[in-house]
């Protein structure tokens, strides 16, 4: 770490933030300490467990290893940014996890949800095998894998039935 600070523009959950900080800090540290966002969790610190997963321009990424200085001009979405900002309605993946009881301790929840959102943007009707493959790099120690897969399947059904499905998908990638 250099310790030198510089002005950085960071777009998180559709809001522009102008921050003065060390560009070598991790995105996870800045999200939690500077912006007060607690969705992404610190797990392993080595991009192995998935607890810190966020979306960068709509693609899942591990915030614990990303340097904030490299994210200028990129749209960052956290768990907090998935809900509709006008109504507060949860994203279909979030409500799918509630309906199917897809979490126990909550440690993996952030990463599972963010990875599922990215998956459903790419493949709106994934098979069980595709869901399992997309979530394989998110560590769950509670063993709720069956409920997690059911949560993603429920979200896919809700998204397919939604008249403004495209608008919900586009919201995740705009800054």
Helix content: 25-40%
Series of secondary-structure elements, N-terminal to C-terminal = EEHEEEHHHHH
Strand content: 5-15%
Biggest sheet overview = 5 strands, mixed
Output the strand order for the largest sheet.
2-1-5-3-4
Rg of Cα set: 16 Å
* Total beta-strand segments: 5
Distance between the termini: 28 Å
Q: Ranges with pLDDT <50 over ≥5 residues? A: none
Label the overall shape.
Answer: globular
Query: What's the number of helices?
Result: 6
The mean pLDDT is 92
SSE class: alpha+beta
Description:
The protein is of the alpha+beta class and 175 residues long. 37% of the residues lie in helices and 14% in strands.
Briefly summarize what is shown:
The protein is an alpha+beta fold. It contains six helices and five strands, in the order E-E-H-E-E-E-H-H-H-H-H. The model has no long low-confidence stretch (mean pLDDT 92).
